[in-house]
Structure formats: structure tokens, C-alpha cells
Specification:
about 160 residues, alpha+beta, four-stranded antiparallel sheet, about 15% helix
Length: about 160
């Protein structure tokens, strides 16, 4: 994984949590719900969605993204995903992310394994907790030069 994308996975995880809360989806005990947030960052304005204030600070703290000053939520979606089946989520333009959720190998503290196919990122596989965002820098830019970041969260926690 490219160092910039690895940074995004580790450094933005906590920062995305507040953004997700405002656009959370309803949970059902018998479904695995997945929330996907498409974030657009630009250097052409200074407008920052209030839910993204912490995300903006974290992104701007990186030398390669210091020039990004405007941050908006372009798309926020929550939908059910059947374990083991791929689900497609629309992001921006004609871009989408494909997500497969499986149970993680037993014995670990993270109950789910995500397989994510995102624009310009290829496939990423990640064991994750429930109710915490996995943030990714995709490398995709819109026609007007905005950088696409995405946050993915499994909202359903397994019963203990």
C-alpha cells in the first residue's frame, strides 16, 4: 500500500467518526449495514463542512495535502450488505466503490474483513471493527480538480 494511503487509513480513522455520526444509518439486528462517505477536498475554496473539521485538519497536516483547503461531503450512503457478496456504492462522477464484507478469521478482536475496490486504489483487504470508519485516499480527482477521499464503516456489531 502506498504510504499516503496507509497514512489515511491510520491517521483519519478517529477524525471521520464525528462526520459519520451526523449521517448515520439505521441498524437492524439481522443485517450488516455499511456506511460509505465520499469526501471531496479542493484548493479552490475554503469552505469546510462542519462535520469534516477534524478530517480537514488531519489531511492538511500532511505535506502532500497541505494545499487542500475546502472539504465537503459529496455523498453519504448506508445500505445492507449480505456477507460474502459484493455491493457497489456510488461516490462522485461515474466513480464507485465495491465492498465485500466477510467475517474475519476467528480469534481476532476485529469481527469483519472488508475487501474494498476503490477508484485508482485497486483492491484493499482490511480486518475492521464495527462502528469505526476505514478512511482511504483514493487518488481520484474530479473534472474540476477535487480530490476524493472515502470513509467506510460496518455499522452492525455481532452479538456476543
Amino acid at each position: 500500500m502506498h504510504p499516503n494511503r496507509l497514512w489515511a487509513v491510520t491517521a483519519l480513522a478517529l477524525a471521520l467518526a464525528p462526520a459519520a455520526g451526523a449521517r448515520a444509518c439505521e441498524e437492524a439486528d439481522d443485517e450488516v449495514k455499511v456506511s460509505v462517505v465520499a469526501i471531496l477536498a479542493t484548493s479552490k475554496d475554503r469552505k469546510v463542512d462542519p462535520a469534516l473539521m477534524e478530517v480537514a485538519k488531519r489531511i492538511q497536516s500532511r505535506k502532500e495535502w497541505k494545499h487542500l483547503t475546502g472539504f465537503t461531503i459529496a455523498q453519504a450512503t448506508c445500505d445492507s450488505v449480505v456477507l460474502g457478496r459484493e455491493k457497489k456504492y456510488r461516490l462522485v462522477d461515474d466513480q464507485c466503490v465495491r465492498i465485500t464484507v466477510d467475517n474475519a478469521p476467528s480469534g481476532g478482536s476485529k469481527p469483519y474483513r472488508l475487501r474494498v475496490k476503490a477508484p485508482k486504489l485497486g483492491e484493499v483487504e482490511y480486518d475492521c471493527c464495527c462502528k469505526k470508519y476505514l478512511p482511504l485516499a483514493t487518488g481520484y480527482q474530479t473534472k474540476d480538480g477535487k480530490q476524493l477521499f472515502i470513509g467506510i464503516m460496518v455499522k452492525t456489531c455481532p452479538e456476543k
